[in-house]
Amino acid sequence: MRILVLNVNTTASMTTAIGDSAREVASPGTQIIELTPDFGADSCEGNFESYLAAIAVIDKVVNYPEPFDAVIQAGYGEHGREGLQELLEVPVVDITEAAASTAQFLGHKYSVVTTLDRTVPLIEDRLKLAGLTDRLASVRASGLGVLELESDPQRAIEAIVDQSRHAVQEDKAEVICLGCGGMAELEHQVREATGVPIVDGVRAAVTIAESMVRMGLSTSKVRTYAPPRPKRVIGWPLTRLTEVNAAS
């Protein structure tokens, strides 16, 4: 089984960390192929960057030259999953939905702890669209930018642990979802500090993608995610167009 895991930003070190996290839970025989978009922002922390990332991720997937069995979009609260589902015949799993759906098997209420406060509405909207808000206790922001997870890891741990404790004690969350693809390495510290199950979206998405492939399941194509109607699309795929222009 081959699973593509797409970082939504262009920071290669974060792609590597996401890929390493995915491999830790992948079954024997599952090959994890982590990919970085060819264009876009070095971190996604708002609507503009998220929509840009959606196109960049789609572009990277449609230009991938080898066969694959599933795709994971490894951005929390990001746009684009629906477009991938229209274009692909294989399962597409978004880490936001994967984490939240997994959390509901583990406790009555769950909270998401994410990066900047401005990303909270994006995550809330994604969860609402997915029908996963009935058991959502809260979405809390640590106040850190995405890139600070790498540049200042100790501060990141302290901020995320602090907000996780508030989620458990004040919001009555029984499970915490780590609300960023780059937070996977913090799982152990947050669990130790809070005493509740901690769900990393990347790892949850890998197990869900594997199970769908094993069951022979993929996206329904009869209506919502039917393939795009044939029509002229100018300048697409973007990566291929860029390569042609660079060579000429």
- How many strands in all? 8
| Coarse shape | globular
Strand percentage lies at 5-15%
What structural class should be given to the helix and strand makeup? alpha/beta
What is the residue-averaged pLDDT?
90
Largest sheet: 4 strands, parallel
Query: How helical, in percent, are the residues?
Result: 40-55%
Strand order of the largest sheet: 2-1-3-4
Protein name: Hydantoin racemase
Enzyme class: isomerase
Catalytic activity: a D-5-monosubstituted hydantoin = a L-5-monosubstituted hydantoin; D-5-benzylhydantoin = L-5-benzylhydantoin
Keywords: ATP-binding, Nucleotide-binding
Task: Please characterize this protein's 3D structure.
- The protein is an alpha/beta fold and 248 residues long.
- The protein folds into two domains: 2-94 and 203-222, 3-Layer(aba) Sandwich (Rossmann fold), CATH 3.40.50.12500; 96-201, Rossmann fold.
- The protein contains ten helices and eight strands.
- It has helices at 12-25, 47-62, 81-87, 95-103, 120-129, 148-151, 153-169, 187-194, 201-214, 238-247; strands at residues 2-7, 31-35, 70-74, 92-94, 110-114, 136-141, 175-178, 198-200.
- Strands 2-1-3-4 form a four-stranded parallel sheet, sandwiched between helices. A four-stranded parallel sheet has the order 6-5-7-8, sandwiched between helices.
- α2 packs parallel to α3 (81-87), α4 packs across α9 (201-214) and α7 (153-169) packs parallel to α8 (187-194).
- It is globular, with a radius of gyration of 18 Å.
- It starts with a strand and ends with a helix.
- The model is unreliable at 241-248 (pLDDT under 50).
